[in-house]
## 1
Amino acid sequence: MGLISEDYKFGKKAEIAVKPLLDEVFGPLLETDRVNKFHSFDFTNNNYYVEHKQRNCKYGQYPSLYFDYSKYEAYIKFKAIHPHIKFFIIWSCKNGHYYWQFNENENESYISRQTLNRTTHLQTNHMLNIKNEFIFKLDNIKI
């Protein structure tokens, strides 16, 4: 994707589509952008923060699934303030929905860099890659 506004629209459309499923799993969730457009996570309630990522690949096609490292940094910050809340990332892939529960186990992940051509400039981000063996099918979640 090129422009940030295109990425936002793509992500927002995916969030709207997946929200009913996430409400079933986590209970009713508030869309955080209704309160703060730049919140680090997409959904929340009294027990959970949930980030959603739409991926145009099949789970297992690559050795990991990734997200922006800034989300992990936000998790560390929020967890210190709200230790009772659990944090999840959900990936919607071509072959289903998958999750990882945030934690500090460094064996489950590795950091990489991703450079995107934003048409007007190049943007480089640090990404947290979660190894597939630590990612689970959302159908099997027990919370």
## 2
Amino acid sequence: MIVIKSLDNTRHAYEMALRIAGSQRTNLAFARAMNRDLPRTKKQVSQALARQSSIKRPIVNERVKLKRATAGNLQTVIYGYGSGLRLDKFTASRPKAGVKATIWAQRRLVPASDPSRGFKRNGRFMMRTTKARFPIKGLFGPSIGKELPKDQSLEAFNAATPQVAERAMHELKQILKLL
């Protein structure tokens, strides 16, 4: 959710426009302002998410969605969905030490991969949970939904917030010209 900080001039201009134009038109102006910068913000958040988690950009773009604001609901949402990605979606290999993958911009040993129990089957990295042949489980990396509200992607989202107040004032002026 985007939170607009209350600046004195912005708040004063909003109150004046609210008196002149009415609440419905003022809400429409704010919704337009929020929606205008939303695709650019989504792109910046997706780029930051791909950098911070080492998930490839097409996968991030596919799983990061947005919900636009309306005059009745002044809230824009950028959300990610899906569970942890399989390790074969990352640059992964199986040396003698276990399974190594490039996750969070570093080449690291996957903690759950025991060297004697990890293996690759049909392009997927798997691990035996016991000494017996079965059961086996897949090894997974980070989830887009869990990584979205962290670090660089959160900073990219917050960087777009100040532009909304300025754009809302512009939209209000355009609506008031039409009256």
## 3
Amino acid sequence: MSGAINDIGGERYRPAQGDFATYAQIIIAEDHAHIHDGDAYAATLIEMDFDNAQTINIAFRTPASDERIHLIFEVAATAFARVEILEGSTVNGGTIYNPRNRRRDSANSSAMVDPTDGVTPGRVRTDVNVAVDGLVVHDEAVGAGKTQGGSVGKTRGESDWILAPNTVYVFRITGNGVGANNQIASIELNWYEHADRN
């Protein structure tokens, strides 16, 4: 196979690779290609002592640039709880969290912006105070070990959210106030950042 790189319209391309045994063309999904490119990220929050009326969340502001956030999420809770995605929220406080680049040898950092100051790039926050919810764009119930959201039983195309630019989002789990304390809850966000070509 040739290792030559072609330049077409200012974009660099390598000729398609093929499987040596079957000559089938090798193709990877676009979201996986973004991992290779170093522009796919993750943020995770786990609460190992989740009480029945507790709330945990991850919040961020999307970049104001042409970069679009393509995001999937997954949540889990052993307590019965409500899961919401809030859009256009007003938040304060919380703990700074630096998203992890899913290509571990990449020096790239996320274009996500701190939701409390609206200017500091490359970080999100966990367990913020939500002063104004904004619009609830997703709402569901989980619990007793049931996991929902993200890619659970779905393809990425069925669960991918393309988020609005320059907007604060909050992914929130809230216990329903009934049942045992000392449960477990988690939120996992996976996303890639991509500018449209047109």
## 4
Amino acid sequence: MKTIKFNSLIHDESQRCKTITQKGKCEHLAVEGVDRCSHHGANRQVESKRRHELDMYNLDRFKFKVGVDAAKTLFDEVLVLKVMLGTLLDACGDSDTELIIRHEAISNLVLKIEKCVTAMTKLEIIQQTMVDKHTVERYVARVLEILTENIEDKKTLNTIAFQMQLAFEEATKPEDL
């Protein structure tokens, strides 16, 4: 990218590179579409903007293909990555040369898919070992029924019920981070 010196007679101040150097404001024009000149990172900003636009395009393609409004879960992320991988492989066609040229991008997508699938598997395992609050409440109610059937002393029964309620509330309150 060619760097052009800022001239206050010709250019508006908003077109100037926003970088502050030791000598003061940068003396070059910002590259169109970003707020820096090529000396101060416009290339990175342009590339980042291009990547973001590509991500949004892929997400829109995914939404259209699957018919959902938003990709929010790991499962949705895997679907988006699979669409991206399919697009990349389709672009290669039958050409071995294209596959070799794009092998790094293909490998990266496959690794991302593998990470998401691994995370999904771990979450499923965790969810299967956890008991939800409703199940615990039903369990506590059943234990109280059993105790009521077998304990005659109402005072002792009330004490047990009260202590179980306190234990349940303590066990289900959110932990401080």
